[in-house]
Amino acid sequence: QVQLVESGGGWVQAGGSLRLSCAASGRTFSTYVAGWFRQAPGKEREFVAAISWSGERTWYTDSVKVRFTISRDNAKNTVYLQMNSLKPEDTAVYYCAAVNAVLSGSSFSAVKSYDYWGQGTQVTVSS
Predict the structure, then answer these.
(1) Helix ranges (DSSP H) in 6-120
(2) pLDDT digits over 71-127, tens only?
(3) Distance (Å, rounded) from C-alpha 34 to C-alpha 21?
(4) Average confidence score pLDDT of the chain
(5) Cα separation of 86 and 19, whole Å?
(6) Long-range contacts of the stretch 39-46 (C-beta < 8 A, 24+)
């Protein structure tokens, strides 16, 4: 089992920045693919970004490319999401997810690909 705990959410004005952290405990997290998803009120959970176990490969949904950066520090069992130039439409609960598997194709962006989830952290961007 892997336990994931997100932190770093909050309120920010449009154009501002936040950095989310996802701390993992349990089994060796360094072998896990990690991802960030978000869910706005009344909408389905959607993919934001993912990172390979080594950190060498990253994937982003088009709406956050250039503005968001996913990274990880396996020595600290932590994954980060640096969010810059935030927009009101980025407002959502952000979830960290992980899976101990090799993902290929578009599977890294699918909710069902991930086995472990955090409780979420709220991000609110005001205009």
Answers:
(1) none
(2) 999 999 999 999 999 999 999 999 999 999 888 878 999 999 999 999 999 999 999
(3) 12
(4) 95
(5) 11
(6) 39/92, 39/93, 39/95, 39/120, 40/91, 40/92, 40/93, 43/92, 45/95, 45/111
